[in-house]
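Researcher: Next entry in the queue.
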Amino acid sequence: MKLTLKIWRQENANAKGKMVTYPIDGVEGDMSFLEMLDVLNEDLINKGEEPVEFDHDCREGICGACSLQINGEPHGPDKLVTTCQLHMRSFKDGDTIVIEPFRAKAFPVVKDLIVDRGAFDRIQQAGGYVSVNTSGNTIDANSIPVNKHDADDSFAAATCIGCGACVAACKNASAMLFTSAKVSQYALLPQGQVEATERVQNMVRQMDLEGFGNCSNTGACEIECPKGISLENIARMNREYMSATSKG
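Model: Structure for this entry, 248 residues:
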């Protein structure tokens, strides 16, 4: 395939960025989106030009580092996949593809397509942990019965990879889906009850401090999430927060 790529180029966080157009040829349908960018960068390097900086790690849909805005959609046109799992057969010969970093005040651009998502780490550090000793003094898993529905919901929330697609999809750049997933995975299990009250308050407080917007209630976050994290988690976090704050 022959494609036209319009890519956001920005030297650093303080520089003024711009869209730069690159033609690319020889793209195969079974290439992943990142492999296509590798081909582009190899060509740029051979020409003595600066390659396009983009984030990636596992390339298996697990780490979430490859987050890109592709034709206006986080992770591109396919659903329930990350950018590294998106294949070029989703595009047609002659297509123009616009590639940008995730846009949010709380995700400042580092360079080109790379953004700093440290805000997510700080939200997690504010309360996304348990004090229960889970190593060296292992307790029988069956000693505390857990409702199967609660266990399933907890595991579903825990599949969040913190990629930031929810933030990029939201018109208010809200991090409610991410934060609620991290709250929910503990709120549903007995191991998470020790810090339950402090957890939700601390994580919501940190989320606000990072500059994320309010929930827009449009559901774009769930639609664009590569792991299909449910909006039910936001409702659960709101209940947890109301309960925690009412206790004084």
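Model: The chain has two domains: 3-110, 117-246.
Researcher: Noted, moving on.
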